Amino acid sequence: MTHYQAIGWFGPVSHVSTFVVELTPPGRGAIAVVCVAGPDALAAVDSGFFAVNRKPLAQQPIGRIVFGRWKTSDHHPGEELVVCRCGEDRVEVHPHGGIASVQAVVDWLVHFGCTRLDWKTWLPREEPDPIRAAARTALAYAPTQRTAFILLDQYQGALRRAMDALESTLQSAGPAEPFRSQCDALLARVELGRHLIRPWHVVLAGKPNVGKSCLANAILGFERALVDTGPGTTRDVVTATTAIDGWPVELSDTAGLRDSPDALERAGIALAEHQLLAADLIVWIEDPTMCESGRTPGDLRSEALSEGVPAGSSMIFAINKIDLLNSQQRSDLRPFLDDRVLAISAKTGEGVDCLLDAISSRLVPNPPQPGAAVPFTEEQVEKLQEMK
Ligand SMILES: Nc1nc2c(ncn2[C@@H]2O[C@H](COP(=O)(O)OP(=O)(O)OP(=O)(O)O)[C@@H](O)[C@H]2O)c(=O)[nH]1
Ligand SMILES: [Mg+2]
User: Fold this and answer.
1) Which of 15, 288, 292, 372 is placed for a possible disulfide with 368 were both Cys, Cβ 3.0 to 4.6 Å?
2) Got the DSSP string for 72-101?
């Protein structure tokens, strides 16, 4: 009897499913990890894996990495790989990280009788606590280390402990204080929690030629947008994702806002206005020549708020091109500057770090301490709102 034919004879014996799950993403990589878990896990892997020490998995110590071959045909020596028995009914197979090699292992195990699951379906079975399961799923999508650390805190129980404490306060003291303030403290972090995976949307806007595209490039660190001396250069919304102080940000450079006879430019301006409505934060840019009419930066900021910026939007006002100012003009500007009005030069980089700090503090005014609870799914937010 060939090895392949032996499968039918050797097949699964239990009625409880044994699962096979790819733990690494599809595609090219050095190593992939395929997890086999369930009552027939050892038998399933033994059916394809031949350890160089010739022992079946049941005789391999738990936790030992075992080298061998995945031999699924009598006509081919099979792929060299390692396998680790991680528990009584759980094995990890580590083939090379290519699409075909992973597929061969998974297909074999499915043929043996294992049920294939994708990792998102499998994870909640592994993690009975829905907060831990959601945090583990979200961690796979965390775009920055800072957001990953916050999600890791939730995975390690920060939010679970806070929710349990809330429940017990509610039961012992009812829905008044201190329950309310505990609840409010968690709800205050909802916006942050919503943006641990999904980036904040920051829009650069203003009149034409003030340096929006130049600033976008300075923030991103590469020439994403075209910059030109004439007004009306940017006609479309130019977006790029980046991180500001560890917070994920989608940055949009937009067409300069003005009345234009050009239909194409007007279409670009309509898109820009649409972006302003959807922005979490608008960085409104002016250049200092605007002050030549005698208007102060304060006047310009008020004008932007009343004319260009949708009501209720969060805005930072940036006066660009300060490298063109002489020392008297710079000192005239100084009294108007604070954390809402900043002076920058997109060309030389002066003040851009302060602008990034201001953006970060505006997006996340109170960054959570390590280990703090942060609700990060809509279900968690709904639960908190219901409790309140
Ligand atoms: N001196 C100086 N020039 C700048 C600065 N920022 C931008 N510029 C120049 O201003 C001109 C317009 O810059 P852009 O970045 O294209 O301006 P914009 O606001 O995107 O213009 P539109 O796309 O037409 O709305 C270019 O010649 C830039 O080199 C700055 O900080 N200092
Ligand atoms: Mg532009």
Assistant:
1) 372
2) --TTS--EEEEEEEEETTEEEEE-EESHHH
